Amino acid sequence: MGSIASWSCTNERLVYSGRSFSARDKVSGTVLSFTRTEPSLLQYPCNDGDPWGRPSPALYLGQKVFLSTDGFETSLLPLTIPSELETSNASVSAAAFVKKDQLVMVINGRVYLYFFIAGEEEWLPVKGIDSLVTELSNTHCCYPGQDPACQAISMTIFAYETGHSASECDIFLSEDGGYTFTALKLSQELQGVLLGVYNFVSLSQTGLLINRTHSDGEGKGGGAYFSYTGGNMSHMYSHISMGFHLKSTGVPDVRGIQNPFLWGVTILWTKDTLLISSNNGLLVEPVTVQTKVFSRTSPPFPGGGLCHVATSNTEIAALTQDHQLFHGTLDMVSTTIVQVKERNSSEKGLCNAVLMFDKVGMLTKLSPEPTNSSWAYNFQKCTLNMQLLLMELWPPLQDCPVEILKGHFHNKIHYIDMHQKLNFSATFVPKPGTGAFPMVTVSNPHVLGFQAYITENGYTYDGNTKYSLHMQLLQQCFSGMAEPHFTDTFLSGGMSILTVDIPNKGPSCIDMHPLSALINVGCPPTKHIKVFKNTTACSKGLFNQGTLQDNFTYTISHNLYNPHFLATPQLGQSDLEVLYEYNNLGCPLLLYYDTPWLPILELWENDTFVEYVSADFVVFEVNGMYNYDYLLTAAEANCVSQPQNWTALIQKQDSPNPHTAWSRMNYESCKNHDGPKLVSPSAKYQILGQNEKNKIIFSHYNGFYIFKAIVVDKLYSYCELSATVSVYVTGALPKSYIHAWTMLTAFLTIILIAIWMGYLLHKLSLMKKSPNVKVF
C-alpha cells in the first residue's frame, strides 16, 4: 500500500484489470510524458447528467500519461501518439477536454486533437497555429440542455506560450473545438510577462494574467494582475484587477482552475501559493490555511509546498509535497481549507499522487503503480469520506448555519431580451441563533442588475422560520441603478451568473450547494418572426400546392434584376430561372399591383405567438429584383437627417451581401438630429414599420417576388430577426403598344368621318325626295 496506507482510508485498494497484460502487450507509437515534475489530473467536468452514473473521463499526467473512461477502475497502458506525428520524447505541456470523447493537447509545442470513441482513437494536427505554444486554456458550460450559447463556450479554446512579454506574445483562438485557430495580437499597452489566458464567460471578457516586478500605475502593483479585453483582443478595456502576489522563484509556474458552472470562481496556485477569486479575477485573495497549530493566509504553503490541487463544483482539496491533505468548501466571501490528514513518518519520496473528487464529499487519492510483467499500470486508490473526517476534527468545526436553500431557477440558463425582466424566488431556513441569511450576487454587474427582498413564509415541521427571497433581474442599462458609463453597450448584451449563497458558511456545508443560474442578456434561441399571410395565391385558386412542390420554376426577365443588388440594369445578362422552394416558402402571399403593401411581422417564441412587431424593419428581394419602390420620400417621412438606403450600405461592403449589409448593429434612424445632413429630401425612404406610413408600391407587373424582412430597430430585441416570404403580384392587365395620341387622333378622325358621312347621306336623301322641275 505504501504511503496511502497511513492515511486510514475509508476505502483503499489496488486496482487492476480482470484480464492480465503480458510483456507482449506492447504499446505502439511514441509514449507520452508530462513536462512538469508534479503530476496533474484532468477530469471532464460536465458529467452530472450521465443517466447511468458513469464516472467522467479523466487524464492522468505524470511520468506517463493515462486516459481512463471508468474512473481508473482497470489497469491501463500508457497513452501514445503515432510515431509519424512525434518520433521521440513526446512531452505534453498542456491538455484540455473539449467534449466527453475529445481532447486537445500540446505535445512538443505542437497542438493536436485526440478523439477516443468506443475503443477507437484518432490523432489530428490542428490548423492555424504557426508557432510553438506551451499552454491551453478553456472553460466548460455544464448547464443541462442543448443551448447554443452554452455549447459555443465549451468550443472556445486558447493556445499560447507563457514566460514572454505580453505585448509580444501570440495567442491563438479556436471557436470550433480546436480544429482551426486564428492568431490574435495583444495590445502594445501591456507590460509584463504573460502567465495565462482565461475565458471569463460570466464577465463577458477575456482575462490576461500578467506578472510585473515593478509598480506602474493603479491596479498594477508589483506582482500579478488581470487585464480584461474583448474577444478579439484588438483594444484594452478599463477593467483591471487589483494586484496580488505569486510567491515563486523565477517566472511563476501558475496553474489555474475555473468552476464549470461559470460562477466566476478561479483557483490560481503555484508550489508556494494558493489563491482564489470569486469574481473572475477582479479580486484575488490567498486561501486561509487552518491546521491544529495555526490559521494563516500568507505563503509559503505548509508541508513543503503544494503537489496537487483539485476542485469540484463546491469543494477544494490540496495535497502537499509531504502528503498532507487539506480540504475546504468554496465560499463567495472567503475560503478556508482545513488540514484533515497529517504527514506520516512512513510517507517518503516524491509526490506522484493526484486528487480526484468522485462525488460530493468523496475524495480519492490516486497514483499509478507499474507492473513487472507488462507495460500496463495498476492504480492505487484511497477514497476518503470528507464529511466523516471533518466530524473527527478537534476542535470541532462550526456547524453549517443553514438547513434549507433551494430555488427552481437553480442550474438553468435563462434569457433576458431587450426591456424584459425575470422574477425568481428562493426558499431558505437558517438554523436558529445563527443569523445566517443569503447573499445575492451577479458576476457581471455591467450587464445585469437586480433588486431583492426577503419575506417570512411560514414555519418548518421543526418550528423553524422559513423565509422567501424574492429577486427581480433586469438589464443594467435600463435599471436606473447605475451611472451611464458603468453599463456595457446594450447592443451586444452579455452573460452573467446569478448566485445565491450563505456567506462565511464554513467547511461543514459540503452538501449545501449555492444556487446559481446563467443569465444570458441576449437573444433567446427560440425567438423568431414570421410574415403574416391573410390571402394566398393557393387559396384563390391561382396555384395549387402540388404544382409548387413539383420543382416549380419561374423566370425573371434580364431587365428586372441586378445580381449585385444595386437596383440598376445590367447589360448583357440573361433571364434568371428560379426554382421555387416550397418547403421554405409555402404558398405565396397574393397581392394586387395597384395596392401599396406593408408587410405585417409576427413575433413568435417556440410555437407561441407573442405579438405583432412594431419595430422598424427593411426588406429586399433575394434575387435582386428592383421593379418596386417605396411610397414615401425622406421629406414625407419627416426625416431630419439623410436616411440610409440599400445601395449605399451594400457599396460599403467588400463583398456585397444584402443579408448582412443592413442590420440592427448599423441602423441609424433619420429622426436623429445627430445624423448626416438631409441633402436629398426627395430620396425614397426605405424603412418600414407598423408606426410608419411607408409602404411598398409595385410596378405594372404580374409575377413572383421573394422578399426578406430584417428587423433593424436597435431597441426591439437582441435577436437578428428576419423572415423570408414569397409574394405573387397580380392584376396588371397587358400593356397596349399603341400610342395614346395616335388612338385619340384615330378616334376623332373616325368621329369626323362619321359626321361627314351622315351629312352626305342626309343631303342625298333630300335630293331624292324633291319634285321634278319642268323645263320649257
TrEMBL record:
<keyword id="KW-0282">Flagellum</keyword>
<keyword id="KW-1003">Cell membrane</keyword>
<keyword id="KW-0325">Glycoprotein</keyword>
<dbReference type="Pfam" id="PF23747">
    <property type="entry name" value="Ig-like_CATSPERD"/>
</dbReference>
<keyword id="KW-0732">Signal</keyword>
<keyword id="KW-0966">Cell projection</keyword>
<feature type="transmembrane region" description="Helical">
    <location>
        <begin position="738"/>
        <end position="761"/>
    </location>
</feature>
<keyword id="KW-0217">Developmental protein</keyword>
<dbReference type="InterPro" id="IPR053813">
    <property type="entry name" value="CATSPERD_beta-prop"/>
</dbReference>
<protein>
    <recommendedName>
        <fullName>Cation channel sperm-associated auxiliary subunit delta</fullName>
    </recommendedName>
</protein>
<dbReference type="GO" id="GO:0048240">
    <property type="term" value="P:sperm capacitation"/>
</dbReference>
<keyword id="KW-0472">Membrane</keyword>
<keyword id="KW-0221">Differentiation</keyword>
<dbReference type="GO" id="GO:0097228">
    <property type="term" value="C:sperm principal piece"/>
</dbReference>
<keyword id="KW-0969">Cilium</keyword>
<dbReference type="InterPro" id="IPR028751">
    <property type="entry name" value="CATSPERD/E"/>
</dbReference>
<feature type="domain" description="CATSPERD/E C-terminal">
    <location>
        <begin position="551"/>
        <end position="766"/>
    </location>
</feature>
<comment type="similarity">
    <text>Belongs to the CATSPERD family.</text>
</comment>
<dbReference type="GO" id="GO:0036128">
    <property type="term" value="C:CatSper complex"/>
</dbReference>
<dbReference type="InterPro" id="IPR055451">
    <property type="entry name" value="Ig-like_CATSPERD"/>
</dbReference>
<dbReference type="Pfam" id="PF15020">
    <property type="entry name" value="Beta-prop_CATSPERD"/>
</dbReference>
<keyword id="KW-0744">Spermatogenesis</keyword>
<dbReference type="InterPro" id="IPR053814">
    <property type="entry name" value="CATSPERD/E_C"/>
</dbReference>
<dbReference type="GO" id="GO:0030317">
    <property type="term" value="P:flagellated sperm motility"/>
</dbReference>
<feature type="domain" description="CATSPERD beta-propeller">
    <location>
        <begin position="29"/>
        <end position="382"/>
    </location>
</feature>
<keyword id="KW-1133">Transmembrane helix</keyword>
<dbReference type="Pfam" id="PF22850">
    <property type="entry name" value="CATSPERD-E_C"/>
</dbReference>
<feature type="domain" description="CATSPERD Ig-like">
    <location>
        <begin position="402"/>
        <end position="521"/>
    </location>
</feature>
<comment type="function">
    <text>Auxiliary component of the CatSper complex, a complex involved in sperm cell hyperactivation. Sperm cell hyperactivation is needed for sperm motility which is essential late in the preparation of sperm for fertilization. Required for CATSPER1 stability before intraflagellar transport and/or incorporation of the CatSper complex channel into the flagellar membrane.</text>
</comment>
<keyword id="KW-0812">Transmembrane</keyword>
<keyword id="KW-1015">Disulfide bond</keyword>
